[in-house]
Specification:
Helix content is 32%, strand content 25%. The chain has 3 domains: 89 residues, 3-Layer(aba) Sandwich (Rossmann fold), CATH 3.40.50; 208 residues, 3-Layer(aba) Sandwich (UDP-N-acetylmuramoyl-L-alanine:D-glutamate ligase); 144 residues, Mur ligase, C-terminal domain (Protein-Tyrosine Phosphatase, Chain A), CATH 3.90.190.20. Strands 8-7-9-6-12-13-14 form a 7-stranded mixed sheet, sandwiched between helices. Strands 18-19-23-20-21-22 form a 6-stranded mixed sheet, sandwiched between helices. Strands 3-2-1-4-5 form a 5-stranded parallel sheet, with helices on both faces. The protein contains 14 helices and 23 strands. The chain is globular and about 60 Å long. It is α/β, with parallel strands linked by helices and 467 residues long. Helix 5 packs across helix 8.
Length: 467
């Protein structure tokens, strides 16, 4: 057991999960520092405000004197000079999920949110419901819940809420991250093919989630979205109690309607109305995310009155349909969507929230999956939800497989929806200029990327305001 006060060094600390885990460790009494090639928002600000020392670049000299434990992020691998120094010097090391298991889970009950989509929002929402209900949960989220201003908390209660990522843990720990998390409760939102650099096909993805369900103890609880066919296929693996939600689930949202403040729905359990709930979020996907969190919060011990108040006061998550601002009558939104399904649902949610104006989709193919041609047709269809489409340059060539052709995507959208509604622009500055030239009062511009995208949402907003 790593003792309090021990010195932990994070290689690749700039990733949002690594940064927040480092800050959480510091908050509970460990000495923390780390390194990365470069820092980007929001990690740079979080680490700076948390007074964590970060070495720029990778150098074996950073490990002198040797720390008590090194946490190696999954963005680094063999050949990294600090990784090589750790191995040569015999310094103890763990993956980030291994560290979470070692340090945070010995005295906590774990609620894990897993699935291809909706993990961050659902994790943030459950953490907020438990917090608002005075249960003092610890939590670690792969984003920034606006209620907390940070994606981590060292609450003194018995529960910890964790975002359960299916991506692999480290070059030496190739299993999914969530296998380290000792789940007592699991919310499973959805399963689709993703992470083409890790999983060869959908069957491999299903196998990963099946392994998670197989380690829920018999006294544990699995909460599943029964509207998702693949979720239904893997659910029988679980040996625990199962709660289902969706159109044919035990828990079912009914009477869903949009209001200016968000979405309102009635929640039924076994056909019995439990009450009306309001959430300041938009989109069918967020109704499902909310129902999963409501079920978990109820089973953990909150009353429906407490849950209703927690939902009403939830503020959302940074970069999940985050409104940057409105200028010249044009609204600019920043979103993390990077999979065709997420792109589609984000655009539909934006349309529901802003039904009057033209809807813009500006998309950066950034993830390993989206830089490949594997989802080119699905991406084209998803982007057709918008009235104006701009594709940015893929972040880099994919590590293997055929590359996405963004020019072809734009061509197919134009063919489907008429001329001049879709374009491919490689330079972010050109995208800014295009928005300034073409956007009209009432338009809604949704910028989608799983990365920094050269700060494009703020740049577009600022440029619009300066004209």
């Amino acid at each position: 057991m790593l003792k309090k006060g021990a010195h932990c060094y994070f290689i690749g600390i700039g990733g949002i999960a690594m940064a927040q885990a480092a800050l959480l460790l510091k908050e509970i009494g460990y000495q923390v520092r780390g390194s990365d090639a470069a820092l980007h928002p929001p990690s740079d600000q979080l680490l700076r405000e948390g007074k964590v020392i970060v070495d720029q670049g990778y150098d074996a000299a950073h490990l002198s004197p040797p720390p008590d434990m090194v946490v190696i992020g999954n963005a680094v691998s063999r050949g990294n000079p600090e990784v090589e120094a750790v191995l040569e010097q015999g310094i103890p090391y763990l993956s980030l999920p291994g560290l979470i298991e070692e340090v945070l889970l010995k005295e906590k009950r774990s609620a894990v949110v897993a699935g291809t989509h909706g993990k961050t929002t659902t994790t943030a929402l459950l953490a907020w419901l438990l917090s608002a209900g005075r249960m003092e949960p610890a939590f670690l989220v792969g984003g920034i819940p606006l209620n907390f201003g940070q994606g981590y908390g060292s609450g003194r209660g018995e529960w910890i809420v964790l975002e359960g990522d299916e991506y692999d843990s480290a070059f030496f720990d190739k299993g999914p991250k969530f296998l380290h998390y000792r789940p007592q409760v699991v919310i499973l939102t959805s399963i689709e093919y993703d992470h083409a650099d890790v999983y060869r096909d959908l069957e491999a993805v299903k196998n990963a989630f099946g392994r998670l369900l197989a380690i829920i103890p018999k006294e544990g609880i699995l909460i599943t979205n029964t509207d998702d066919q693949i979720v239904r296929e893997v659910t029988p693996v679980a040996q625990c109690h199962v709660e289902t939600f969706g159109r044919k689930g035990r828990w079912s949202p009914q009477g869903v309607h949009v209001i200016p403040q968000g979405t309102v729905f009635q929640l039924l359990r076994d056909g019995e109305a439990l009450g009306e709930f309001e959430i300041p979020l938009w989109g069918d996907h967020n109704v499902k995310n909310t129902v999963g969190a409501v079920i978990a919060a109820s089973l953990i011990g909150l009353s429906f009155d407490q849950i209703s108040e927690g939902l009403r006061t939830f503020q959302g998550v940074r970069r999940r349909m985050e409104v940057i601002g409105k200028t010249r009558g044009i609204t600019v939104i920043d979103d993390f969507a990077h999979h065709p399904t997420a792109v589609r649902e984000t655009l539909r949610a934006a349309r529901a929230r802003f039904p009057e104006g033209r809807l813009w989709a500006i998309f950066e193919p950034r993830s390993q999956t989206m830089r490949r041609r594997v989802f080119q047709e699905e991406l084209t269809t998803a982007l057709e939800e918008a009235d104006q489409v701009v594709l940015g340059k893929p972040f880099s060539p994919p590590s293997h497989g055929e590359a996405l052709d963004p020019t072809r995507v734009a061509q197919e959208i134009r063919r489907a929806k008429g001329n001049a509604v879709a374009t491919y622009l490689e330079d972010p500055a050109s995208i800014v200029s295009h928005c300034v030239e073409k956007a009209l009062p009432g338009d809604v511009i949704v910028v989608m990327s799983s990365g920094h995208f050269e700060g494009l949402p703020q740049r577009i907003f600022t440029a619009l305001g300066n004209t």
